[in-house]
Design goal:
By secondary structure, the protein is an alpha/beta fold. It has 10 helices and 12 strands. α3 packs parallel to α4 and α8 runs parallel beside α10.
Length: 341
């Protein structure tokens, strides 16, 4: 049984209430073009999606993104930095804090309408203070419409990559959509998910309409590690695994073959400091093999102002979900990536 609590306005109404200002639309369009050019292989720049595991409070996120904007000025000739502002949080057991979209104040009750307005304001302000438009996870496909005018990069998580609705909505998006390997780590399933997202002509119900998706040639693979039947983390950023994905791309004949390496999650076993080592190994493999370099287009890195995590929001700028790198390590790592592109 469902108990109705509050009617949520349609996305079109919300977007009209809090529109992206015209000057920031221009900034976002430029950032969209840069990120898309990386996935298309039109530039040697690397895409780096970096930021907190989940954005639980606006003020520290904006401070983080402002710092990232300043750092971008030092690396923009080699990197395309995209702030990670994730406002929906998947839960392995289905319970717990589900992100700012649902619960804009983690210490208060759920309030989705307030959450929608809060995250729209956050994304708009983030572009304003940094000149960078963000990435967010499309955890609930129906919710994407409330932020579709604000994002430059969209992620489909490991628990969602086999879901038909996620694949269908991804096929109608005209921006880079990174699809993570499923929790099993299956390469064929990952390639099938990218294939589905790239396929046009699919008809389905979305936002109250029968729609026909054009297909998204910018959909691509993200390797985040896997979990075996006993709950053990299995990394998949190593050379041999990446080459298997490259073989899968070639066999499927997909457009714009690209791979993003998620340095945290099951690749690091959530040992956040390991992200530095993982990125370094991948960079060395790009130097070693031209095919590896051609396909591996960037990284996802979890990072915040303060390293680690906490159960409750006590320390300003520290994650309340998965542990993250602190700012000092993040800055050094991004500068190092830029040197080795």
């Amino acid at each position: 049984m469902f108990e109705r609590e509050e009617k949520i306005p349609e996305a079109e109404e919300i977007l009209a209430e809090t529109p992206l200002p015209a000057p920031l639309k221009k900034v976002k369009a430029e950032r969209d073009a840069l990120a898309s050019s990386v996935i298309r292989g039109e530039t040697d720049k690397l895409l780096v999606i970096v930021g907190p595991c989940s954005a639980h409070e606006s003020r520290p996120v904006l401070e983080y993104v402002e710092r990232l904007g300043r750092l971008n000025e030092r690396v923009k000739d080699r990197l395309v930095l995209v702030p990670r502002i994730y406002t929906n949080k998947p839960r392995t057991k289905g319970v717990g804090y589900k992100g700012m979209f649902t619960q804009p104040d983690p210490k208060s009750k759920e309030d989705i309408l307030k959450g929608i307005h809060t995250i729209r304001r956050l994304h708009i302000d983030a572009i304003g203070v940094s000149g960078l438009s963000a990435a967010d996870e499309m955890l609930y496909p129906e919710n994407y419409a409330y932020v579709e005018d604000l994002l430059t990069y969209i992620a489909v998580g490991a628990r969602s990559s086999e879901n038909q609705m996620h694949r269908l909505v991804a096929s109608g998006i005209e921006l880079p959509v990174g699809i993570k390997n499923p929790m099993s780590g299956s390469v064929p399933v990952l390639i099938n998910s990218v294939y589905a997202a790239q396929s046009g002509g699919q008809v389905f119900k979305y936002q109250g309409w029968q729609v026909r998706a054009s297909g998204n040639p910018l959909a691509h693979a993200v390797l985040r590690g896997a979990v075996d039947g006993y709950g053990n983390d299995i990394p998949n950023f190593h050379y041999e695994t990446v080459m298997k994905v490259i073989e899968g791309y070639a066999a499927a004949g997909l457009a714009n073959p690209a791979i993003i390496i998620d340095a945290n999650h099951s690749n690091s076993g959530k040992r956040f400091k390991q992200q530095i080592r993982i990125v370094e190994e991948v960079l060395n493999n790009r130097i070693y093999d031209k095919d590896f370099k051609k396909y591996v287009k960037g990284f996802m890195i979890e990072s915040f102002l303060e390293e680690g995590n906490q159960k409750e929001d006590v320390v300003y700028g520290r994650s309340i979900t998965d542990p993250c790198l602190g700012w000092a390590d993040t800055e050094r790592l991004i500068l190092d990536i830029a040197e080795k592109v």
